[in-house]
């Protein structure tokens, strides 16, 4: 397989974890959480700290998830308890994390070449497929639980959650913690994949996440049988693949950014407009509206 | 069943725009009946509902439900004893979830939410029979996302969801105001059937005098935070209500 | 507008961008070799567009040309994006290039991650050991070696004492996101102790914070030392204005900052650094040496430049030994 395509797939899968996390805040809870620009490198720096202290890469990655969840908790508390607007709360957390990340190891760039990583003994693509599928299954299961449904309901209609006797703030906190935990995990995976940690890792990460979500949304808009997690995965992988193809075609990365933006625009236009051509493709979606085709008696 | 004692409520206090809605308001709602509350705009009927539900805090006074003082209980705690249907069909449901999922959520009201699966097959029969009672064909659409339903269908669903766990008090907040006359009629009929079947104590705020009279046992008219009429619905005619209404309107214009 | 028209327009724009992109990179990509012979393929993995990094690239290419080595150069620029630099490195590996030349620390690290067989040469890396690229400068011990842009800091700092022995407090402004900068600040502190100086450092994370950062220390310092920091380099004019107006002598780690208004520099040339790396590449490609056998180097030559206007503004004596044999700029 073409080298660039393989790399794009691997990186796309690492970002799929990021996209699944941001899906929780951005799509389900409808909160624009900009703290991810700080939580992504947080995961990487935390991984470095624990790996250098002698912990196994698996444990270090789990710690990364944990610290990410705490960061999400901070953002949540900022806007739930202190009534700071979510957008601002996210930016505040991101700003605090910048200093925290630097303090964790005292350095802005940390090489990890002499430490074990999850990728040391397994091929990257195999590991990432396993990790992404695993997370996806866990998330899908979670979203089918009582708490998971309340999370979705919180994003849909807080009044309903309250009418059920539940506190919608509790679920925003859960959502932000879970989301940022996944984002930090993604950061720790990227650090292991590239072999070093750098404070600039978080720059533009929100663009990657949102582009992945938008592309995933659009690619599978008409087929509601694709779960929200699958769409995030498809979006992240597509985003990186498009980038990889562009580099392969000889495009310089500056043009690459413009291309990505244009691709996203194209995808959104596909959503919003309906020419007869598009409609005929979309018609298959109508049948997919009713989720299950089993007759009632079978249930 | 519901006692409102010495209720005081103002908006924009200590500013030039202070509005005093209730000054020492009292009200008793009896059990197992539907009490309609009507009145011109600004009379306080919606505010009253919000104060009872806990969406708004009282300035002074007490709200006692079934002998329990709920005045300082937060909205979500009160919600466990109440049911509420809002004016907007979107406010009582989760649009991106299916009918089955919405009903499953409503069914868990009052219980603790855990990591167990929400949708349980053993509840299906119950849900289907509830939907069948509505006679709207919703039992065939269990897996349709609620956002694809019409306003009337959503309100009917909201109604079932609000009443499902037999709340002590059901609050209907102009719940047909956003629907067209035909659908409105259907929903009101379904409301009456539901109330009759389960004997639910109901407080119904309505903008429609005819509906208010037809579907309630007791009618209360408010004006500027005071009760100006309180009679059994059977003893009042629509004309009588209209006359009072017009008189009050005239008063305002002259004043 | 009609949807079919919209799509046509979008397709046209897309094609235009793709074509212009191909045309642009066609120039910097490799040309087909005209003659046969031992032709080597070298992949250049440059982190970002930046005068210093560009100079390091040009110097490298010129060194190989001057040595008569037949190379096909594949140049890729990651535009500051680390995942892209990693993808570039991996691409070079799969293309089986003979050598990878990585410019800047993250590009070097990505290249090292991508391969432990193909020789990797770096430049514009301040501390190759701390960055995990080599075991030690003398014995790199792997497939990576190169030319470090670590400045002759001790010589530079001692110029303060040469100018005026009473100078004690030296201010340093730096970008906390650049690991090279942190490393330099630490080194400065070590040398400062030896030289009888004290470092007062202030970190910024955004270029807009630089004016305030300078203001916050201007009353406490006797001199300003500008390290090789990309962000400070971009804002050097305003830093220079402030220190010159306050009559504070400034020493820069590299010459371009003196063009920007600082007083004097005894620094390295990135072009020359690139040439050093190019010479190491020749040893690897033509002489068949392995990177582990080639010690990593620091900049071999330094040049002293001073800013004429600044010198006059500060009222200093142009015949002072510090400025002897130095080039003047800013006349």
Helix content of chain A: over 70%
What is the topology, as strand order, of the major beta sheet of chain C? 7-6-8-9-10-12-13
CATH architecture term of the largest domain in chain C: 3-Layer(aba) Sandwich
Q: Give the CATH class of the largest domain in chain C.
A: Alpha Beta
* Uncertain runs of chain A: 285-293, 295-299
CATH superfamily of the largest domain in chain C: Response regulator
Mean pLDDT of chain C: 85
Shape of chain A: globular
Helix percentage of chain C: 40-55%
Q: How large is the share of residues in beta strands of chain A?
A: under 5%
Oligomerization state of this entry?
A: heterotrimer
CATH class of chain A: Mainly Alpha
Task: Please tell me about this protein's structure.
- The complex is a heterotrimer of chains A (299), B (255) and C (331).
- Chain A has helices at residues 3-28, 36-52, 57-80, 86-105, 124-142, 146-156, 158-163, 168-194, 205-219, 228-248, 253-272, 276-288; strands spanning 109-111, 196-198.
- Chain A is mainly α and 299 residues long.
- In chain A, 54% of the residues are buried.
- Mean pLDDT of chain A is 86; it is low at 285-293 and 295-299.
- By secondary structure, chain B is an alpha/beta fold.
- Chain B has a single domain, classed as Rossmann fold, CATH 3.40.50.
- Chain B is 35% helix and 24% strand.
- Chain B has helices spanning 45-53, 75-78, 99-107, 124-134, 151-163, 181-198, 209-215, 238-254; strands spanning 2-11, 19-29, 34-38, 60-65, 68-69, 82-85, 169-173, 202-205, 218-223, 226-232.
- In chain C, strands 7-6-8-9-10-12-13 form a 7-stranded mixed β-sheet, sandwiched between helices. Chain C has a 6-stranded parallel β-sheet with strand order 2-1-3-4-5-11, with helices on both faces.
- Helix content of chain C is 43%, strand content 21%.
- In chain C, helix 4 links the parallel strand 3 and strand 4 (120-125).
- Chain C contains 12 helices and 13 strands.
- In chain C, helix 5 (153-163) crosses helix 6 (179-195).
- Chains A and C meet through helix 1, helix 8, helix 10 and helix 11 of A and helix 1, helix 3, helix 4 and helix 6 of C.
């Amino acid at each position: 397989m073409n080298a660039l395509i393989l790399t794009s797939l691997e990186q796309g899968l690492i970002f799929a974890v990021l996209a699944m996390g941001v899906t929780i805040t951005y799509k389900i809870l409808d909160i624009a959480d900009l703290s991810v620009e700080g939580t992504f490198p947080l995961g990487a720096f935390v991984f470095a700290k624990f790996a250098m202290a002698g912990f196994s890469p698996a444990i270090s990655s789990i710690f990364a998830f944990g610290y990410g969840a705490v960061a999400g908790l901070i953002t949540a508390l900022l806007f739930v308890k202190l009534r700071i607007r979510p957008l601002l709360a996210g930016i505040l957390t991101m700003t605090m994390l910048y200093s925290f990340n630097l303090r964790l190891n005292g350095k802005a760039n940390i090489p990890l070449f002499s430490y074990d990583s999850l990728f040391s003994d397994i091929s990257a693509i195999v590991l990432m497929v396993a990790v992404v599928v695993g997370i996806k299954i866990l998330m899908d299961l979670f979203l089918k639980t009582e708490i998971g449904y309340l999370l979705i309901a919180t994003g849909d209609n807080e009044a309903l959650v309250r009418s059920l006797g539940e506190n919608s703030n509790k679920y925003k906190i859960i959502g932000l913690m879970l989301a940022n935990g996944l984002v930090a995990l993604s950061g720790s995976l990227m650090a292991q994949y590239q072999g070093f940690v750098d404070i600039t890792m978080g720059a533009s990460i929100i663009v990657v996440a949102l582009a992945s979500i938008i592309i995933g949304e659009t690619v599978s808009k008409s087929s509601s049988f694709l779960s929200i997690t699958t769409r995030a995965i498809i979006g992240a992988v597509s985003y990186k693949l498009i980038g990889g193809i562009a580099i392969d075609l000889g495009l310089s990365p500056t043009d690459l950014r413009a291309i990505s933006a244009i691709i996203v625009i194209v995808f959104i236009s596909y959503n919003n407009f309906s020419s007869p051509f598009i409609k005929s493709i979309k018609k298959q979606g109508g049948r997919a509206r009713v989720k299950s085709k089993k007759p009632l008696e079978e249930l | 069943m519901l006692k409102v004692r010495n209720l005081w409520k103002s908006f924009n206090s200590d500013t030039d725009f202070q509005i005093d809605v209730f000054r020492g308001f009292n009200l008793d709602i009896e059990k197992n009946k539907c009490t309609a509350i009507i009145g011109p705009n600004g009379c306080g009927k919606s505010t009253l509902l919000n104060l009872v539900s806990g969406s708004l805090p009282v300035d002074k006074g007490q709200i006692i439900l079934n002998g329990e003082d709920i005045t300082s209980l937060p909205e979500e705690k009160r919600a466990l004893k109440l049911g509420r249907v809002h004016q907007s069909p979107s406010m009582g449901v989760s649009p991106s979830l299916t009918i089955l999922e919405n009903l499953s959520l409503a069914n868990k009201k009052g219980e603790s939410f855990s990591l167990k699966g929400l949708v349980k097959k053993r509840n299906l029969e119950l849900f289907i029979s509830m939907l069948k009672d509505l006679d709207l064909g919703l039992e065939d659409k269990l897996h349709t996302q609620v956002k694809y339903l019409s306003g009337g269908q959503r309100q009917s669903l909201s109604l079932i969801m609000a009443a499902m766990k037999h709340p002590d008090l059901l609050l209907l907040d102009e719940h047909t105001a956003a629907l067209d006359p035909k659908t409105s009629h259907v929903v009101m009929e379904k409301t009456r059937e539901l109330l009759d079947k389960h004997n639910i104590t109901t407080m119904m705020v309505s903008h429609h005098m005819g509906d208010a009279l037809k579907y309630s046992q007791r009618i209360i008219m408010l004006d500027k935070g005071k009760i100006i009429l309180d009679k059994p619905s059977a003893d009042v005619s629509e004309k009588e209500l209209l006359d009072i209404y017009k008189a009050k309107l005239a008063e305002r214009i002259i004043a | 507008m009609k949807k079919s028209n919209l799509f046509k327009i979008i397709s046209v724009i897309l094609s235009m961008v793709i074509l212009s992109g191909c045309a642009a990179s066609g120039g910097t990509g490799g040309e087909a070799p005209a003659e046969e012979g031992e032709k080597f393929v070298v992949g250049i993995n440059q982190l970002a567009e930046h005068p210093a990094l560009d100079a390091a690239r040009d110097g490298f290419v010129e060194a190989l040309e001057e040595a008569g080595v037949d190379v096909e150069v594949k140049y890729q620029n990651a535009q500051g994006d680390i995942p892209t630099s990693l993808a570039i490195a991996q691409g070079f590996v799969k293309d089986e290039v003979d050598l990878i030349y990585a410019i800047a620390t993250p590009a070097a690290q990505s290249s090292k991650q991508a391969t432990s067989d193909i020789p990797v040469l770096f430049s514009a890396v301040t501390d190759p050991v701390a960055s995990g690229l080599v075991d030690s400068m003398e014995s790199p011990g792997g497939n990576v070696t190169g030319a470090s842009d670590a400045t002759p800091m001790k010589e530079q700092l001692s110029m303060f004492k040469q100018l005026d022995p009473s100078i004690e407090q030296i201010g340093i402004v730096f970008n906390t996101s650049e690991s090279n900068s942190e490393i330099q600040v630490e080194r400065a502190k070590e040398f400062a102790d030896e030289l009888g100086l004290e470092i007062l450092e202030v970190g910024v994370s955004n270029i807009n914070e630089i004016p305030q950062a300078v203001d916050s220390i201007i009353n406490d310092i006797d001199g300003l030392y500008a390290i090789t920091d990309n962000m400070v380099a971009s804002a050097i004019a305003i830093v220079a204005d402030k220190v010159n107006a306050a009559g504070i002598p400034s020493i820069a780690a590299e010459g371009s900052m003196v063009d920007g208004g600082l007083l004097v520099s005894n620094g390295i040339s990135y072009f020359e650094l690139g040439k050093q790396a190019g010479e190491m590449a020749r040893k690897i490609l033509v002489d068949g040496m392995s990177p582990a056998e080639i010690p990593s180097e620091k900049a071999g030559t330094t040049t002293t430049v001073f800013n004429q206007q600044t010198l006059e503004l500060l009222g200093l004596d142009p015949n002072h030994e510090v400025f002897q044999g130095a080039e003047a700029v800013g006349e």
